[in-house]
Design goal:
Layout lengths: L1 E8 L5 H10 L4 E5 L5 H5 L2 H16 L17 H25 L3 E4 L1 E6 L2 E5 L5 E12 L3 E3 L12 E2 L1 H4 L8 E5 L3 H12 L3 E5 L11 H13 L3 E3 L3 E7 L5 E7 L2 E7 L1 E4 L3 E3 L32 E3 L10 H15 L13 E3 L4 E6 L2 H6 L4 E7 L4 H6 L5 E7 L5 E8 L2 H13 L4 H6 L9 H10 L10
Parallel strand pairs: 1-2, 1-6, 2-3, 6-17, 8-15, 9-10, 9-15, 10-11
Antiparallel strand pairs: 4-5, 5-6, 7-16, 12-13, 13-14, 18-19, 19-22, 20-21, 21-22
Helix pairs in contact: 1-8, 3-4, 3-6
The chain binds nicotinamide-adenine-dinucleotide.
């Protein structure tokens, strides 16, 4: 049996930074991964989808230069080449993660881990052999989450697909139905819509992107419709029948009526579930909640003191950057340092077109907490830089406490929203007031000025827009 200070199960955006930080803190660490290092994020999630999104953006932009006096003809997409390019990025990044683990002195084993004791892990290799490992200090569960499948829409890898297949398509669907109007459905649906697919969104709830500021969602929704897409809300996909020509007739129930929609591809994106099954957690006494999440304390510890859990498996939000932060915290705690989860807010970025990025409380959440709020809103349609970029959809919205003027939340929809949200996150972490944002000099002409102007607007002092 091999002995380590710590064993990390999973080498995704939670597990690999955790193993690296443990190694940096002079801990003897083993990281176990059953697939490729990098997890969902690097292999078929965040990064591959962003590569396709940036290709789609370029494809659209290259054809939208007429207003600027630029005429481009013959714009063509080679889906095979795009996939090769995307795969190159994935290879480079996952190779980089492998090198970082090795370079920092973390051992990596390829195989499936089972927790067989509070400090013991068995690893089953591809050839069926089993290796035993012991952790003198801690085991970290960083197994992430897996795609939820609907029984009536079993993935077949080609017509009925999940996000994993959707980022690897070497063809552009003609008619694409997305079941689930959440983050994955809209991000990837809009990619293929930009490349010419007719997009049909089927969402079970009354709104797309539930939980996001509805003002922001509206802008994205409008764009989907403007491009010829269809959105069915409060709708249920009942089942499908394959047609002779290979397409599928999907039966949906919307507005109390059944109808059949014929498409060639169905992307099912109805959420992810924590990967906590089959790990042996219950056998060693680790609490797993009804939804499959592993509850942890502020030190990332489960109810079994030597077992930690980080990232998606430990609970929402299911975001890579939350997993990474928890990985770093768990490593510090295991190495005996003082560290704990003490963030004010976790930002979210949704790479639709335009992007949505949010941090902190929405207007509705603040009001539900009984807070009186001031709202500042600044549209990109009046911002010089946005006009110069010819990307004027959207706005920055700031929610602040009316009495104290402390910033409670920032919600951005528009160009580079995902980049701009970092300033808003810092504002929340530093307990900033509206004045902090509005009095900070922002360079001109930039998109970032919109944050400064929105803060000024919340105080009735915006220069470039009428104050209420
Ligand atoms: P999601 O939870 O964002 O959206 C799923 C949607 O499907 C919901 O709106 C839900 O109401 C709907 N739904 C559920 N069952 C349905 C059914 N039977 N018919 C129709 N609609 C149904 O989940 P997702 O889009 O699959 O993403 C999974 C996870 O990955 C999320 O937790 C998300 O945070 C994360 N993710 C994040 C990003 C990002 O931050 N940019 C990108 C991709 C994924």
């Amino acid at each position: 049996m091999k002995t380590y200070d710590a064993i990390v199960i999973g080498a995704g955006p939670g597990g690999y930074p955790c193993a690296i930080r443990l190694a940096q803190l002079k801990q003897k660490v083993l990281c176990i991964e059953k697939e490729n290092v990098g997890g969902v994020c690097l292999n078929w999630g965040c990064i591959p989808s962003k590569a396709l999104i940036s290709a789609a953006h370029l494809y659209e932009k290259s054809q939208a230069g007429a207003a600027m006096g630029i005429k481009v003809s013959g714009v063509e997409l080679d889906a095979n080449k795009m996939q090769d390019w995307k795969e190159g990025i994935v290879k480079k990044l996952t190779g980089g993660v492998g090198s970082l683990l090795k370079g920092n002195g973390a051992d990596v084993v390829n195989g499936t881990a089972t927790v067989v004791g509070p400090k013991r892990v068995d690893v089953t290799r591809a050839d069926g052999s089993v290796e035993q490992f012991e952790a003198t200090k801690a085991i970290v569960i960083a197994t992430g989450s897996t795609t939820i499948e609907i029984p009536t829409f079993k993935f077949d890898g080609d017509t009925i697909i999940g996000a994993k297949e959707a980022v690897s398509l070497r063809r552009i669907p003609k008619r694409l139905m997305v079941i689930g109007g959440g983050v994955i459905g809209l991000e990837l649906g809009m990619v293929y819509q930009a490349f010419g697919a007719e997009l049909i969104v089927v969402e079970a709830l009354p709104e797309l992107l539930t939980g996001v500021d509805p003002d922001c969602t509206k802008i994205v929704e409008r764009k989907i419709l403007k491009r010829g897409g269809t959105i069915h809300k409060n709708a249920k996909a009942l089942g499908y029948e394959k047609q002779k020509d290979g397409s599928v007739g999907v039966k949906i129930l919307a507005d109390g009526k059944e109808q059949t929609i014929v498409v060639d591809t169905v992307l099912v994106a109805v959420g992810m579930r924590p990967s906590s099954k089959g790990l042996g957690l219950e056998k060693v006494g680790v609490t797993v909640d009804q939804r499959g999440f592993v509850p942890t304390d502020k030190f990332c510890r489960t109810n079994v003191p030597s077992i930690y859990a980080i990232g998606d498996v430990s609970g929402p939000p299911l975001l890579a950057h939350k997993a990474t932060k928890e990985g770093e915290i768990a490593a510090e705690v295991i190495a005996g340092h003082k560290a704990e989860k003490d963030w004010v807010a976790i930002p979210g970025a949704i790479f639709t077109d335009p992007e949505i990025a949010t941090v902190g409380l929405t207007e509705a959440e603040a009001k539900a907490k009984g807070l009186e709020v001031s709202i500042g809103k600044f549209p990109f349609s009046v911002l010089g830089k946005a006009m110069a970029m010819n990307e004027t959809e959207g706005f920055v919205k700031i929610v602040a406490d009316k009495k104290t003027k402390q910033v409670l939340g920032v919600h951005i929809v528009g160009p580079e929203a995902s980049t701009m949200i970092s300033e808003a996150s810092l504002s929340l972490e530093m307990a900033a007031f509206l004045e902090d944002l509005s009095l900070t000099i922002h360079p001109h002409p930039t998109l970032g000025e919109s944050l400064m102007e929105a803060a000024a607007h919340a105080m009735g002092a915006a220069i470039h827009i009428a104050n209420r």
